[in-house]
Design goal:
The structure holds two protein chains of two kinds. Chain A has helices spanning about 25-35, 45-50, 60-75, and strands at about 10-15, 80-85, 95-110, 110-120, 125-135. Chain A is of the alpha+beta class. Chain B is mainly beta. Chain B has one domain (about 5-20, about 55-149): Thiol Ester Dehydrase, Chain A (Roll). The chains are: A alpha+beta, B mainly beta.
Chain lengths: ~140, ~150
């Protein structure tokens, strides 16, 4: 959990590694999110459009970063802004690690904020997406 | 085909009631075991004062619309480039959210395979009192036809 008073710009936050992505998880995420694009659940369909097989929803990976952010925020901070830019694709059996760096901390209208730069990686130096979150303390 | 004419296009507003079990299923699919999304007693003691939805949950609300806004785009050329959630407050179980999708920006950039077009779509979500809760902003990359070959 983050203590705002101890955060400094450039500070690296503890990384968090998820369980490998599974095909069952993609089916569950399709159901829960309402995104039934067969690219994420149907290998035959995915292969027809040139993929080796199904790929994970980008939003599932953003969900991993969201899990990471609220884990860091603990019971102290509220997510005010959260964004992600999607890069490489994630496949079943890929293991995603979430990393964060403090970009800045500031005060505005009496409230205190921390901005985190976020990365989702499927191996060292293999970034699948990067993002940013603003937490209000 | 330029997509500039799409700016300002809006879908019909629709209303969704946020269910506690939907929030739990969404967190479970991510593999997110934070009790903040399921345990009222735990959540009460946090800054949130009760159960909230995970930060990316609004994406599940965007899919609740009965009729898609028909922009005349080719699905196969669309890539989800970026996603952003701009919150006034977290979503809570029992919220009755009115959602509306709007095309708020369209722009072009030169890429390796020619001009790429970008379409920015906002889904604004307001609560029963009419107050803003969250805006879900989706940035679509609309690939040129040649890049598709």
């Amino acid at each position: 959990m983050l203590e705002l008073a101890q955060l400094t710009t450039g500070q690296e936050l503890p990384a968090y590694t998820k369980e490998p992505v599974t095909k069952v998880q993609l089916v569950k995420y399709a159901g829960a999110s309402g995104d039934f694009n067969p690219l994420h659940t149907d290998d035959a369909f995915a292969q027809k459009i040139g993929m080796p097989g199904v790929i994970a929803h980008g939003m599932l990976i953003m969900g991993f970063l969201g899990e990471y952010v609220n884990h860091l925020a603990g019971d102290l901070a509220i997510v005010k802004d959260f964004s992600m830019r999607f890069g490489a694709m994630t496949f079943p059996k890929d293991t995603i690690t979430c990393r964060g760096v403090i970009k800045e901390t500031y005060e505005q209208h009496g409230a205190r904020f921390a901005v985190l730069t976020l990365y989702a990686e499927k191996g060292p130096e293999k970034v699948v997406g990067s993002g940013e979150a603003t937490l209000q303390f | 085909m330029s997509v500039a004419h799409l700016i300002g296009k809006a879908g019909k507003p629709y209303t969704v009631e946020v269910e506690k079990c939907h929030i739990r299923q969404f967190a479970q699919a991510i593999g997110d075991t934070n009790p903040l999304y399921s345990d009222e007693e735990f959540a009460k003691k946090t800054v949130h004062g009760g159960i909230i939805a995970p930060p990316t949950f609004p994406i599940a609300m965007s899919e609740e619309s009965d009729e898609d806004l028909d922009l005349g785009l080719e699905y196969s050329r669309m890539l989800h480039g970026e996603q952003r959630f701009i919150y006034t407050r977290p979503i809570r179980p029992g919220d009755v959210l009115t959602c509306q999708l709007k095309v708020t920006d369209v722009y072009e950039r030169e890429g390796k395979n020619g001009t790429m077009e970008f379409i920015v779509m906002d889904t604004e979500m307001t609560d029963a009192a009419g107050a803003h809760v969250v805006t879900s902003r989706t940035n679509i990359i609309y690939r040129s036809v040649s890049a598709n070959a």
